[in-house]
Write a structure and sequence with these properties.
Layout (H helix, E strand, L loop, with lengths): L7 H21 L3 H8 L13 H25 L4 H20 L8 H12 L6 H21 L8 H20 L5 H21 L10 H24 L8 H10 L22 H8 L5 H22 L5 H12 L5 H28 L4 H17 L4 H16 L8 H25 L5 H23 L7 H25 L3 H32 L5 H9 L3 H18 L11 H22 L1
């Protein structure tokens, strides 16, 4: 049982209410099947937590509409045999693309495939595709209202929470300096600060008043970032951060809820968060990228699962397709996907016993509402802590809804079919993953190393001029931050891949660590220079000298050549002191790696 997030019970209760209210309404209107159909829209409540309320309102409205369209398209295609397979596969691919590119968060694309499967399996022929879409959208609208209710009590609660989390992560990093957790804690702090900027910048209206709470929270987050840069600078010189730094950070965190705030930050001093939605969607479709491989993997697996189950006359092919999407949509590595498959199978088969008990009892009216709500509440309480246990109640809730409130004549056959569908879907997902694997460590990690070094070179060229707050500089700093995150993700994914890829990743770790230190040192220098204001160009000239940036660029070009061609790294010329330690360290580990290869 892994630890769950703080306040999870409130999220779980809201999700349960969003599932139960439409069913209760349908029963009161003497059409339980319509209420169960509308409850599919209640899945909208599972998304959007942590987003600012304006951004959340837009996102949840789009998700509610997407659920309605998924169910309507599935019902339209259901009578047309093979067409339904193509429709479900297309829904799965599009949902995977948009969910991952736009970072809508768990449960991601899977719920749209599940909604389509549950909707088409439901015995509700009197409703029709249009009626089903309206009902599902109505359920989503209720979830939207409940999800937005927090704005009445704390309009900027998500923004305050993001800044508070970032501050605590920075304190965690400072406490970890000099320990074996330093690199991990530094990454967590950097990512938390970046996530806070995303909440405070990317997910806000374009125009923000200079004295608004958001402007003040931006100023607080900037102060946190400056303290983080100060701590990284001290660590890079093998020094301990000032002892008063943690006390300063705690005072800043306290100010998140206090009326007195730090001075408002100038607009040109605010870094960027994630790329725009359009840029993220286009990047996810880059040929050969791992994100594109995930999309293709989902589409191929959905088509194969749907085709085979149709050929062999499985009762409901959509359930097998939903299982394949569940396994593949998050882009897990092999070991995590294998673990998730086993957890899903175990949870599903135990969940069939629970479903059998529920359907034998055949709850109606308020009892049906309470059963579905209890299942959903339990799922949300368990899904982060133990997925296998959560899958028991996922199965119970989904199949109870799919039964449409009607008695199931052949209960044993109904349950057996669902178990076989899940087993077959997981098997197909594992086979397709093997046929379309992630990119090999031997090529993927070097590409990310080169991407990060190019980003360092670009930022350094601006840094040497004292230019760190222009739009181009802010975009370059963001690219360097994202490149460092991508490098960490590439390494972590490789550690959970096949044995040969794990070995290759471990061999590359010293180079990865050296590049990460160089990236973070460059970023922290930008923050330090930013504090100089109008004196930044003069300070930059003192840091880099007349041709310091050119020497750094030359060294990075030599590093990139060494990584690309497995070539030797020539001796470095004199380097600016500000980055000398990190560059010399990178040259040393590259040379050591080459000597190791030769032996």
């Amino acid at each position: 049982m892994r630890p769950g997030p703080e306040g999870r019970w409130l999220f779980s209760l809201r999700a349960a209410a969003c599932m139960g209210a439409p069913i209760l309404t349908g029963w009161l209107a003497n059409d339980t099947a319509a209420g169960l159909m509308a409850s599919i829209g209640g899945f909208t409540a599972l998304y959007g937590s942590g987003r600012p309320y304006v951004s959340r309102a837009i996102k949840l409205a789009m998700i509610a509409l997407a659920f309605a369209l998924s169910v309507a398209l599935g019902l339209l295609a259901a009578p047309m045999g093979w067409a339904v397979i193509v429709v479900v596969a297309a829904i799965a691919m599009i949902a995977t693309w948009l969910s991952n590119a736009l970072q809508i968060g768990p449960p991601g694309a899977y719920m749209f495939a599940l909604a389509c499967a549950a909707g088409t399996a439901m015995p509700a022929a009197h409703i029709g595709p249009l009626g089903a879409a309206l009902l599902v959208f109505g359920g989503g609208a209720f979830a939207w209202l409940l999800h937005m209710a927090g704005a009445l009590f704390s309009l900027h609660g998500p923004e305050r929470g993001a800044v508070r989390t970032a501050g605590r992560a920075v304190i965690g990093y400072i406490n970890a300096i000099g320990t074996d957790q330093e690199n991990v804690s530094r990454y967590r702090a950097a990512y938390a600060l970046h996530a806070a900027w995303t909440v405070l910048v990317n997910r806000q209206p374009t125009r923000i008043s200079a004295d608004s709470p958001i402007a003040r929270l931006r100023a607080l987050n900037r102060e946190l970032h400056l303290r983080f840069a100060e701590a990284m600078g001290a660590a890079s010189r093998n020094q301990s951060p000032p002892p008063e730094l943690i006390d300063e950070l705690r005072k800043l965190i306290e100010q998140v809820h206090r009326p007195e705030q730090p001075p408002v930050t100038a607009k040109d001093a605010i870094p960027l968060g994630h790329p725009s939605a359009t840029a993220a969607m286009l990047e996810a479709l880059q040929p050969g990228s791992n994100s594109m491989r995930v999309i293709v993997r989902v589409g191929v697996a959905a088509l194969v699962a749907g085709a085979i189950t149709s050929i062999f006359h499985f009762e409901r092919a959509y359930w097998a397709v939903a299982a394949t999407v569940l396994m593949l949509h998050q882009g897990f590595d092999w070991l995590r996907m294998l673990q998730r498959s086993l957890e899903r199978l175990l949870g599903t088969w135990v969940g069939l016993l629970l479903t059998g008990a529920i359907l034998v009892f055949h709850p109606q009216g308020v009892w049906l509402v309470l059963v579905v709500m209890a299942c959903q509440f339990t799922v949300e309480m368990l899904v982060i802590r133990n997925y296998a246990l959560a899958a028991v109640f996922i199965t119970g809730g989904a199949l109870t809804i799919a039964a449409g409130g009607h008695p199931v004549e052949d209960l044993g056959g109904y349950l057996w079919a669902r178990g076989i569908d899940t087993l077959f879907g997981c098997f197909i997902a594992l086979v397709v993953f093997r046929l379309i694997p992630p990119r090999a460590t031997a090529t993927y990690i070097p590409e990310q190393l080169i991407r990060a070094l190019h980003a360092v070179a670009k930022v350094t060229s601006l840094l040497a001029q004292g230019v760190v707050t222009t739009p181009d500089a802010r975009m370059s700093r963001r690219e360097l931050q994202l490149a460092s995150f991508a490098l960490t993700h590439a390494y972590e994914d490789s550690l959970a891949a096949a044995r040969s890829q794990r070995f290759a990743a471990e061999q590359l770790w010293p180079i990865i660590a050296a590049v990460e230190r160089l990236a973070y040192r460059t970023i922290s220098t930008c923050w330090a220079l930013e504090q100089q204001g109008a004196a930044a160009p003069r300070e930059a000239a003192a840091m880099f000298g007349a041709d310091g940036a050119a020497r750094v660029s030359q060294a990075i070009d030599e590093f990139i050549a060494a990584i690309s061609n497995h070539a030797a790294v020539p001796p470095l010329s004199a380097l600016p002191q500000v980055l000398e330690t990190e560059l010399v360290d990178l040259q040393r580990v590259l040379q050591a790696a080459r000597i190791s290869e030769q032996h």
